[in-house]
Amino acid sequence: MLKKLILVLNCGSSSLKFSIIDPILKKTFVFGCVECLFLINPIVNINVNSKNYKKILPNYSDHHNALNFVLNFIKKNFHNYYSKIYGIGHRVVHGGENLNKSSIINHNIIKKIKKASIFAPLHNPSNLIGIQISYKFFPHLKFKNVAVFDTSFHSSLPKSSYLYAIPYKFYKKYKIRRYGAHGISHNYIVKKSQKILKKNKSSLNLISCHLGNGSSITAIRNGKSIDTSMGLTPLEGLVMGTRSGDLDPAIIFFMYKKLGIKLDDIEEILTKKSGLLGLTEKSSDCRYSEKNYKNNKKAKLSIDIFCHRLAKYISAYSSLMKGRLDALIFTGGIGENSSLIRKSVVSKLELIGFFIDKKLNISIKKNKNYFINKKNSRNILVIPTKEELFIAIETKKLIY
């Protein structure tokens, strides 16, 4: 007999993931995703009891369209699960400096999430849409909505990692600092790696690469985040689907002063028109670049730049491990599914002891954990992230 279930909503920058989970049994009854929002032919996949239902949404559908469709579809066709939903957990990317732990959502929490939206302009507004639509579909659960923050895991960053080398008053007065993101995923990777590597969290040293439309890398020492690639906002760091990642700040001055581009337009360019989309001039989807890697120069270049940047970060973070690095982890949609990306990145890391096994790398099966390194190599793992399960467990802790 079904008991209390948790609906988990993860409204990403260009996607929507959803699950209905029993957090006690750690069993997922319904899960799915909407991919390619804001593009042509957004795809909805809903999996219930090993049966997959696939739908195509209208071109350029947004989070409102997608979430309304998904919840109405589940309500109509799988009411036995829908009716048992007892709480709703929301992934929220940025909590600012004050929201550093999971919280039951109320007016004050929403106000702080909105305030932190300046630091996550592609994410927090989408997260708020998820909360808004949850209130519409489940008005009786208004005070059983929980925000789980991506920034929480990075609250352990030392000042040497989170402070920028700008006048200190900007941190003191305006809280300009590194916050990081993808903390839910990186935190899950720590917990899963403990079991796979049979090590205590307090002695676990990892480099975790969460690679997707948004990508970040985190240095984890003794089970805690000590450095991470995303900064004040999720714009800093690796090359992403539409985000530039690291660049010389003077580029912004050049674009504004010499090219006459307005600041709002520069923000639009760097957050929504750069990354893989900017390099290929075709698509923000990594699968497009992979598919055309051998016959399209721009597609190849986009992958090469993506891998070059990631390899630099991995090498740098290896220096923070105090002589012991237990594993390099690939996770996220790209990290779990792209053998090309993994091969290209690891080929640049031989100096620090990483060697990939080509056969293992291409034989990864979804939702299983595998070592993909040669015997003479440091550990390289592909671990499917389960952010939704982590969110469901956090939600249960606060509302049961």
How would you characterize this protein structure?
This protein is of the alpha/beta class and 400 residues long. The chain has two domains: 5-149, Nucleotidyltransferase, domain 5, CATH 3.30.420; 199-382, ATPase, nucleotide binding domain (Nucleotidyltransferase, domain 5), CATH 3.30.420.40. It contains 16 helices and 14 strands. It has helices spanning 63-77, 79-82, 107-116, 124-137, 159-162, 169-174, 183-197, 250-257, 263-272, 275-280, 286-291, 297-318, 332-337, 339-346, 358-362, 387-399, and strands spanning 5-11, 16-22, 27-35, 43-48, 51-56, 85-92, 103-104, 145-149, 206-210, 216-221, 224-228, 327-331, 370-371, 380-382. The strands form two sheets. The chain has an eight-stranded mixed β-sheet with strand order 5-4-3-2-1-6-8-7, with helices on both faces. Strand 4 (43-48) and strand 5 (51-56) form a beta hairpin. Helix 1 (63-77) runs parallel beside helix 4. The protein is globular and about 55 Å long. The mean pLDDT is 94.
How many E-type strands?
14
Count of alpha/pi helices: 16
The CATH architecture assignment of the largest domain turns out to be: 2-Layer Sandwich
Class inferred from helices and paired strands: alpha/beta
Report mean pLDDT, rounded to a whole number: 94
Coarse shape? globular
The radius of gyration is 21 Å
Number of domain modules:
2
Unreliable residue runs = none
Q: What's the order of the H and E elements?
A: EEEEEHHEEHHEHHHEEEHHHHHEHHHEEH
- What's the CATH class of the largest domain, please? Alpha Beta
CATH superfamily annotation of the largest domain = ATPase, nucleotide binding domain
What name does the CATH topology of the largest domain carry?
A: Nucleotidyltransferase, domain 5
* Main β-sheet, spatial strand arrangement: 5-4-3-2-1-6-8-7
- β-strand percent reads 15-25%
What is the terminal-to-terminal distance? 18 Å
Query: Helicity level, as a percent range?
Result: 25-40%
Q: Main sheet? A: 8 strands, mixed
